Amino acid sequence: MDRRFSMEGLLPPPVGTSDWVRFSRTSYCVDKTLILKDLIDSESTVVLFTRPRRFGKTTIMEMIRAFYEPETLVEDRGMVKTEEFFTDKKIWFADGGKYRAEQGKRPVIFLTFKDFKSTTWESAKKDIVNCLAYEFSRFASAGDALSGIKAEQFAAVRDGKADIDTLKLSLGLLAEAVHLNSKTLPVILIDEYDQPITSASTHGYYDEMCAFMRVFLSGALKDNKHCHIGIMTGVLRVAKEGILSGLNNPAVWTVFEQKYSQYFGFTEEEVAEMARYYGAEDKLPEIKAWYDGYDFGGTEIYNPWSVLRYFQCNCKPDAYWLDTSSNELIAAIVRDLPYDMVRTLEALLRDEAPRVQMTKELGPYKDVMANKSSLYALLVSAGYLKIASPIEEGMCKVALPNHELSLVFVNDIKAKINAALSVGTGDIVGALLDRDADALREAISAFLLESVSYFDAAAEGFFHGLTLGFLAILRKRFRVLSNVESGEGRFDIALKPLVEPFPAFIIEVKAADSDTADLKGLARDARAQIDGKKYDATFRAEGITDIEKIGLAYFKDKVELCKNL
Questions:
Q1: Pick the CATH number of 32-253 from 1.10.287, 1.10.760, 3.40.50, 3.30.450
Q2: Considering only CA atoms, which of 48, 51, 39, 41 is closest in space to residue 266?
Q3: pLDDT at 457 over 70
C-alpha cells in the first residue's frame, strides 16, 4: 500500500519543526492543549517538566506561548490573533468554554537554552548575553516603564553590554518592566533550562554556571510579584542544592509522576488514531514493538519523534531517535562507566530487566557518577531505560523500552565509548569473525595503546566488561552470553550464533597483577580452562560443534591471546 503523504487530503506529519502555530494548521497535529487546563487549575507559580530529548517539550512550550500571547507573527500574514489557532482544539471546549477567558491575555517571556553548548565559561557568557539581548529587544518598549538604575540596566542588557552581575538579575528585571508596561502579569517560559548546566558539567565550568543560574532563576521565579507563572522544561531535574535551591517549592513533574504524564510523547490512543488517518492500522503491532514501551508515571507512552518519522518515511521502521541530538552527560557517564554497572548492561543486552538502585531526584550533575541510584535515574530520565517495576526501598527493575532503544543502546552507547576512547572496535570484531588470532591480538593491543590512561590499575572484572563491550555490536548475529553455567563452571563470555555461517565463540579473560607476570602463560591458562572445565558442553549438547576457544590475558595496555594449545 502506498503511504506517501502527497496523497490529496492528507496532512504531513510535523517533522523538523517545533513551531506549533505553523504546524497546527499545516500538518497533522496531536491535540495536547488540555495541559493548559491542568496548569490553570493547579494554580502553581513555578512548574518544571523533565522529559527525554525529542519528546515534545519545545512544542508544548510553543503552544503555551501561543495560548497566552494575544498576537503572533505568521508568515505572509503579519501579526494575527492567536485565538484562531485554538477554536478547534480541546481546550476551547473544556468545561463549557471556561478557559477561553485566559486565551490571549498575557505577554510571554520566552527563553530557550537548547543551543547552549559552549566549551568554556567565556563563550557561555556570550551565549547568555545574546539570548537575553534578543528577548529584551523584543520587549524594548517595556523599558520605558523603568527609571533610574533599572532603566540603565535594562538598556545595557538590551544592547548586549551588561556585566555578569546585571545579567544574573536580568530576567526578574524584564518581568518587572513587562508587567509595569502592560499592566498584566507575564508568563515566563524557559525551554531546556538544564542544557547550560550539562555543558558546564562536562567542560569544566560547572561552579560558575551554577552560581549564575541559581540567582538568574530565583530572581525571576521566587515570590515574584511581576510573574503570573513560570514554566521550565529540561531533560533532568537538578537537586534542590543545585540551581533550583533559590525557588520556593517548584512543582516538579518528572517521568516518575503520573500528573501531566500524557502530554509529552504519544499515548496508545493517539498513535492508533494517527495510524487510521494514514491508512496504516495494519502497522500498529510494528509501531508498538519499535516505539512503545515508555512508562511515564504509569502512562504508556510512544516516542513521538520516531512515530512521526516512521509515517514520514512511508512506514519504514528504523532507529530514528538515534543521533537526533547529543547528550553530553550520557557521554561522560559511558566514558567513566564503573565496572559494577557491567552486569546490568549485560542483562539489558539479553533483554532482561535487572534490579538496580533508583532515586527520583538527581544530585548535582558533577556528582552523578558517585551515586549509582542517580546514575540509573539519569538514564531513565534521558530515555535510555524505562522503569519496569515499582520503586521499593530505593530499588526497582529497569529495561530497554522497545526495539528502537535496543539498537540505540548498542549503537549510541557504543559510539560514545569509541569517541571517548578515540578509537573504534571494528578491527577487533572483524578479526574475531575472520578467526585471525594474530590480527585479533594486534587490534586489541592497538585499542589499549590508544586508551592506556583508562586502564591503569584495572582489575580482571574491568577487562571482562571491556571485552564484552567489544562484542556488543555483534548482537544481531550472536546471542552474547556472560558468566553462564556450562560444563563444570561458568565461562566468562560466549557468542552463540543466531545466523549461519558463524561459529560459536568461548572467551576466557585473565588479568595480571604486575608487569612481571607471564601474559602469554596466563593466556594459555585461560585457554586451557575452557577445555578443562568443559565450557563447550552446553553448545555441543545443542548440536553446535564449530566452536572457537580463546584465552585473553591483560595487563594495563598489554594483551596476549591464545587460541590453540
A1: 3.40.50
A2: 51
A3: no
